[in-house]
Amino acid sequence: MDIIHLLPDSIANQIAAGEVIQRPASVVKELIENAVDAAADNIQIIIKDAGRSLIQVIDNGQGMSKTDARLSFERHATSKIHSAKDLFALRTMGFRGEALASIAAVAQVELKTRRKEDEIGIFIRISASKVEKQETVAIHSGSSFSVKNLFYNIPARRKFLKSNEIEFKNILVEFERVALVNPQITFTLRHNSREIISLPISNLKQRITNLMGGKIAQNLLPININTSFIQIYGFISVPTASKKRGALQYFFANGRYMRHAYFHRAVILAFEPFIPIGDHPNYFLYIKIDPASIDINIHPTKTEIKFENEQMLFQIIFSAVKEAIAVPTLEFDQEKVIDIPSYRGKEIQITPPIIQMYSDYNPFSDKYVYENSQINWKQSCLKNQTNNTEGTAERIKTTYLQYKGKYLILSLKSGIIFIDQRRAHIRILFDDYIKRINHKQGISQRLLFPEKISFTPKEITILPYILDDLAFIGFDLKDLGNNIYSINGIPAGSENIDIIATLQEIIDKILTTSCEIKEEITESLILVLAQKTAINYGNFFSEEEIHTLIARLFSSTSPKYTPDGKLIIFMLSEEELNKRFL
């Protein structure tokens, strides 16, 4: 009896969908790329419930005939490949003919489309690869794809989708990758009836600015290298704009987003002498090359591309980036104009600024950090500590040493304890902010002159999940529209930090760590703030400040480690110490 048989198309399509359509963002990517290939210059994307309920892409491209519309849902149906040699001359986004068939296998799909030369369009409805309806319809020229109830017929796949926050963030990632390489197209993105992004036709630099925020424009250095076989153009950031996390790093090849670890290394090596260790530069680099010299068919999502002569390309990229850093250009197309007052003799009375100093500032005092504390920490410091590090709790004596403003060394009856003072302060602040959030008692310091902060569309999606927590720890933010917020108040004790940079770092960390559970998001937020406001190394404290720090630390439920797992306390017993002198 024969045991090998061909799978039905519906099952084969579902298997293919597992590779091509992994989440709502995959559908968005495929449909937008189809619209780009259709020569559209206006593309609208409408999303509901992060793509679970609806993904609709409307374009004004060339549209399809009745026959093409129907064939587009068949597996391996494509307008881009006629022979094997065409695989080595691809200049379009999609070409395999799997996307629409895969989408139709796992969702309910409706297509309305019309060519400009046709008087009437065609409407097709397909569910789980089965055509349910096909008829003529009046529609503008172009195409409208509606994908409803994604994975409705594969409950296991639908169950493994992440939260709406995470799934919509992934949609934004795919949207950005297409929009960044097509500034000649108008894009609009709406989510749950709210317009998230509206991008007009523009030049490349303006498209980057519109997507990534206005501040990035002043930090971009242009690159434009032409050789006999390759063109590399785009922008890199100035070294001073590098980031610890959340750097914006994009490679594109022939209009397609790609990942390329080897070329990324070329950029990093070029930046290495100019940025601190651990920092990452922003870059938006576009490669134009003969399609015959690349292979884009090595990964289902086509984000990995193999190049001929990669070592040569590495050197070209390295040299181009290094030259751009070394020879920055002056640009005169900035929208902002600096108003330089003219000299008018004795009319202007120039007075030096008055700087108000707080000579009594104490970062560990109740006034600045621990307003809610009702405990006499100096006295409690002398009491026996319970639940301390590995049973070393006992009365803390006043014998101590500060080493280089970094470590506190205390003499105990049973040995010596070493404390990293900055990490101890991070632990204390973290616990304090947690209490504020749990008790919903934010302590805010009003700003005399409110500051403004601008968020990118991707960053703005995170705010609804953290605004309450930010308020509970002392931030007073007001929505001014157009992704701009006013900072009217900040947490007490954070007056000496760059609050805009801190908020930006909070958002970056949440985005880059892909936090999904509310508690994880909250802890990520608080950890960044605690690290920013904690005392720096190099500070020497009075005896009272040391007692306050130690007492606050030992009152923590986790005094031995920082919230991100770094050691705070190290104990050297008298027995271990004696062994050193044997």
From TrEMBL:
Q: Which PROSITE patterns match?
A: DNA_MISMATCH_REPAIR_1
Gene Ontology biological-process entries: mismatch repair
Taxonomic path: Bacteria, Pseudomonadati, Bacteroidota, Bacteroidia, Bacteroidales
InterPro entries given in the database record: DNA_mismatch_repair_CS, DNA_mismatch_repair_MutL, DNA_mismatch_S5_2-like, HATPase_C_sf, MutL/Mlh/PMS, MutL/Mlh/Pms-like, MutL_C, MutL_C_dimsub
Q: Which family does the record claim for this protein?
A: Belongs to the DNA mismatch repair MutL/HexB family.
MF terms (GO), sorted A to Z: ATP binding; ATP hydrolysis activity; ATP-dependent DNA damage sensor activity; mismatched DNA binding
Q: Which UniProt keywords apply?
A: DNA damage, DNA repair
**Organism annotation:** Azobacteroides pseudotrichonymphae genomovar. CFP2
Protein name as it appears in the record = DNA mismatch repair protein MutL
User: Keyword DNA repair, does the record have it?
Assistant: yes
A single GO cellular-component term from the record reads:
mismatch repair complex
Q: Which SUPFAM superfamilies match?
A: ATPase domain of HSP90 chaperone/DNA topoisomerase II/histidine kinase, DNA mismatch repair protein MutL, Ribosomal protein S5 domain 2-like
Q: Which residues form the MutL C-terminal dimerisation domain?
A: 400-541
